[in-house]
Amino acid sequence: MKAYLKQSIPGLAIGTLLLVASCNSTTQKSTTNSAQDQSISDTSSISAKAFEKEIDGKPVRLFSLKNTSGSKALITNFGGRLVGLFVPDAAGKLVDVVAGFDHIEGYQKSTEPYFGATIGRYGNRIAKGRFTLDGKAYKIFTNNGVNTLHGGKKGYQDVVWDATQLDGQTLELRYLSKDMEEGFPGNLSITVTYTLTDDNALKITYKATTDKNTVVNLTNHAFFNLNGSQSGSILNHLVKINADKYTPVDSTLIPSGKLEEVKDTPFDFTHAKTIGKDIEVKNPQLQNGKGYDHNFVLNAHDINDAIAIVTGDKTGIVMSVYTDQPGLQFYSGNFMQSKNTMKGNHKDDFRTAFALETQHFPDSPNQPSFPSTVLKKGESYQSQSIYKFSVAK
Asked: Is 379 one of the annotated active-site residues of the chain?
């Protein structure tokens, strides 16, 4: 993707484009796959009716995208969440590779609030819930110990987005994040578009504009298990990440500001290895994250370069990740505690799903050496992430 607003990181241009429509009521231009009056398909026990509810005075629905290959994505406008993603395994059987719930109440009551959600206004952590912009100090809600995580007390995972199903393979979500919502300045108009392509790629495009200088870091927090969302441990998944450096963190998972080499550390995924290979190695960084919960500094790339490749050991499903962002948060499900009953009546057991969140770096508003996350009035933000599925050969 070409960059329209460039921010510096060696060899990388980070883009921002145009926005975006204002928020209107939930509508559908095409109801081909919205399936609001029936079970979504014979590949899923998820009923659309289980997602029909009014929250904060706005209608919540479940939307279905389906491509010509038969793959399917299920998305709810509550939190802009990816509820299910059905892709073929090596035998041609459709497998749901995303952890989640089969009813809306699960997402409302979950002790883990981010399953499948669109994250903002600022994905990841901001130290001590404070930052300074244009000489003015801002205080935001601290919801992760002494820090702010994923936008504060009520991030975008808890809002109802206005939805328009553009066609059978595309869903557009819109939200107006008002000035000083969760302490962030500026009215931020956001559009997130999910597209399921015929070559089994789920594209997520983020666009935003603001009427006041602000900070923005949007991402998606899907929890993946390429063996199937109910299949158990992810420790035997093979992972490759195109990153020679990462950002080490303190005990509260705030970066030190340094960029450290992954070579000769448990964080070296430059060659494919299983998640479990080094996760129990005695290492201060692994202790801080209780496993992997770190930002990887991606090597020079553009949207056409796979920055991460993951392979399910049981299904042979391969997920290739593409982004125009400078960082990737790799989270190995360390805080999953079997407290929630998920799809298929399975618990969210320890390390049974992982996340790969495309992003700018954590705490960038307080780290001048990191790529900037400032979005200025009159400018526009755009980011795209692609999760493309195939099978191992």
From this structure: no
